[in-house]
Write a structure and sequence with these properties.
single chain, 6 domains, 5-stranded antiparallel sheet, 18 helices, 32 strands, 23% strand, globular, transmembrane helix
Amino acid sequence: SNSTNEAFNSTIAVLLDTGNLVVRHKSNSSHVVWQSFDDMTDTWLPAPGMFTVEMDPNGSKQYIILWNSSMVYWDTGNWTGSSFPNMPELSRANTYPNTPYTYQFVDNDQETYFTYNVTDDRILSRHVIGVSGQTQSSVWVEAAQAWVVYFSQPKANCDVYGFCGAYSKCSGSALSSSCSCLKGFSERDPNSWNLGDPTAGCRRNVQLQCGSKGLEKEKQDRFYTINSVKLPDKAYTSIEGTSNQNCQSACLNNCSCTAYSYNGTCSLWYAELLNLQDTIDGSLDNIHIRVAASELPDSRTKKRWIAGVAVGGVATLGCAVIALYFLLRRRRRINSMNLGKGSLISFKYNDLQFLTKNFSEILGVGAFGSVFKGVLPDATIMAVKKLEGLRQGEKQFRAEVSTIGTIQHVNLIQLLGFCSEGTKRLLVYEYMPNGSLDHHLFRSSTAPLSWSTRYQIATGVARGLTYLHEECRDCIIHCDIKPENILLGESLVPKVADFGLAKLLGRDFSRVLTSMRGTIGYLAPEWISGEAITTKADVFSYGMMLFEIISGKRNNMHTGTSTYTFFPMWVVRKLVEGDVQTLIDSELVTDVDLRELERVCMVACWCVQDSESSRPTMGEIVQILEGLVRVEMPPVPRYLQVLAEGVKPSEVSNLS
C-alpha cells in the first residue's frame, strides 16, 4: 500500500560499531523503529566454511574444531561433570571467576548445549572463528580503543590443521606464526599469500622424475634434509627401510613418495606434506624432502670447475681468489642478515665482533654480562649481550635459546639471534632507544614521566608477564622484575627484558639472585624462606616496582641526614586515610587521574601480600588496570613491616 511504501522510504538501516543493527527514521535519528539488540538470539549460525566449531557429531560430550568438515585439529575434551579438560575457562563450577562473564554447560537426556552470558551491560564481547582457524573470544577495551583477546584455541596458528597448506613449513609462536615454502617449491596462489591466507600451500617448481631407475645417476631425484621439525601428518611405516639408506631407496623407488624420515623406523609420505612445523622443544626429528635433480645441483660438478680454475691459474692468483671469496661470503652473510623476520640468526663470534666494532660501545652492565651496541650494514641497530658464567653445553643452550626465540609479544623484548662458540655465549636483542625504566624514574637528567605514561608502562609490563606466565607453551618465571629490566621503545612502550635468563640459568639463578646488588628489595618472602618459587614471586616483584613507578623514587628513600621513609608503608597509610594524591611523584606537572592512582596503589598492596595465594595473577592485574574488574581495599601486608624494620625500626612505628 501507499502507507507501507511511505514508511519504508522514510527509514534507514544502520549497523553501529557495537554490532547493533538499527532501523530508524531518516529525519530523526533518535526515533528507532527496530534494533537487533532488542531481539537477541542464542543460536550460532551453521555457516559453511573451511573451519567450523560444533558439538562432536559422534556423540561425545565435547566441542571440536574441524578443518574442511573432516579433520579434527582441536577439542575441549569430554565434559567431566565440572569442566572441559582442554578448556579450563569452562571449569570452577562453570564460571569464570572475577570477571563479568558467566558460562554454563547443560547436558541431560533431552539436550546438550552451553551458554555464555555477559553480566555487565557495559562490556562488549564477541566470539569468532577467523580465517586463521583459531576460535577467539574478545572484549572491547575503551581505554585502548581495541578488541582484546582473553581466550583463543588453539593457542598457536601452527596447530591449526593445514594452516600453511601443502609443501610449506610453519614457524613461530602463539602470537606470531609464519609460513614458508620448502626448497624446490613456490607459492601456489601468490595473491592469497599476499593477503595473509597461505592455506593454498605450495607446488613443485620441477616435477619428479618417475621411474628413476633407468635414468643416469646425475638426473635421478634427490633428497635434502630439514632438521628439528615436527613431522607431517599421514606417514606410512615401511618394513623395507631397515636403515637410512634402505629407507631412502624405498622412497626413491616409488613414484608417489614425496619424503621420508628414519629414526630407527622408516616413515614414508605418499601424498602432499601437511602440517610440517619447526619445533620449539629441541626435537631431533628430521625429514628428507624429495625434489628433482635440477633443484639440487651436483656438488661434484662445482668441485671440478673450481679445480679447473685453480690448475689453470697462477698460485698467487688462486690465493687471492680464495681470500676474496671468503671476504665476499662474509659480507654477503652479514648483508643478508634479516633481523626480526620470525627466525633466529645464528651469528658467528667474529661477525659480532665486526658489527659491534670489537664490543667498543657499551650500553649497560647487568648481573650476567655487559650489553653492547651493534649496527648491521642496513643501519639496523641491535643490542648484543655477552653472557658470563654460563655453564650450559652447546646442545642445551641452543635448545633453550630456540624456545626463547619463539616467544614474541609487544611487551617482551625480542630475541633476534645468538652466538654459541666454545665458551662464548651471546644473545642479540632488538635495540631500545629510550633505555631502561630506572633511567627515567630515578635520574634527574631526564624529564619526569607523565602519569598516563606511567600507567601505560604498568599495564604493558603486566601484559608481558601474563604472556610469560599463562600463554607460553611452558610457563616462564622471570625471577628478576625491577625497573632496570624494563626497557622503553620509541613511544615509551615497555618491554620486559632478560626474561630468558631464568630459563637459561635454571635453578642456579635463585642462588645468584639473592646476592645480586640492588635486587634484594624486590624479592618475595618465599625466596628468603627457601620455599618453591611460583609465578607469584614475579607478582610480588611487580608490586614493589609499582610503588617506585608511583613515587618516581626508590622504595627506600633517604629524606634527610638521618631520616628514611619506606614508601610501600606510606602507601598503605595513605590508602587507609583516603589521601593517595600526596603519594604521586612531586615532579609531575600534568593532571593525574586519581581513580587510576588509587587503583594502582591497591594493586601494588595486593601484589605484596605475605601469602602467595592472596596475591592476584598477572592476568587478573591486567583486567584490573584495564578497568574490567573492580579491586577491593587490600589488607595491610605484614611483610612490608619486616622490610621496613630492615631500614629504620623507628620509622615503622611512626607509620603503623
